[in-house]
Amino acid sequence: MANHLTDLVAIDFFVVPTIDFKVLYVFVVLAHECREVFYFNVTEHPTAQWVAQQIIEAFPWETAPRYLLRDRDAIYGERFRHRVHSLLIEEVITAPRSPGQNPYVERIIGSMRRDCLDHVIVFNERHLKRTLTIYFDYYHRWRTHLGLEMDTPQGRDVQTPDQGKVTEVPDLGGLHDHYLRLAA
Question: Which residues are CB-contacts of 179 (< 8 A; sequence separation ≥ 6)?
């Protein structure tokens, strides 16, 4: 797998309940190499046609990866497989009931739940999209990862003491914080 990290993305779904007990489905596309979620979308009613369209939107203008790692969910039907094949992507399908074969996307889903969604009451689809957009900005720019040698998916500059005093900056409405050195 290490030989193909740059050519591999993983996809998965997870569900989020709303305040009025509706269930929203979140579709996530994760780049393995940098652990970056570069595409997501939310719907109340996922269909095979909708999922197939998400693949087209996730990989515009010949940016498709070589390999796509996914589970055996029935939503990835014939239309989906046809779209993936037309983009010249080779599907890698995990064994039944084996989330450990798709660890990076399972980890990001767990992180989204623990870091954000377990602390937020979701009102509707628009609110969930806005919340996840803010979370992904935090996740990509400030949340460090052991697998990336304590760096972030988008990388960050080292700030030396001569750049100023350390200042706390709230993220996600104060749910998390990041720290910057700011000149006085």
Answer: 166, 167, 168, 169
Q: What is the dihedral of CA 82, 88, 93, 99, to 10 degrees?
A: -110
46: β partners: none
Asked if the structure places residue 99 within a domain, the reply is yes
The phi and psi torsions of 88 (rounded to 5 degrees) equal: 65, 35
- Quote the pLDDT of residue 5: 59
Residue 167 dihedral angles phi and psi, to the nearest 5°: -125, 135
Q: What is the residue range of 139's domain?
A: 2-158
pTM here?
0.86
Domain count, the chain: 1
Q: Give the pLDDT confidence of 81-97 residue by residue, as tens digits.
A: 999 999 999 999 999 98
Domain harbouring 56, CATH code: 3.30.420.10
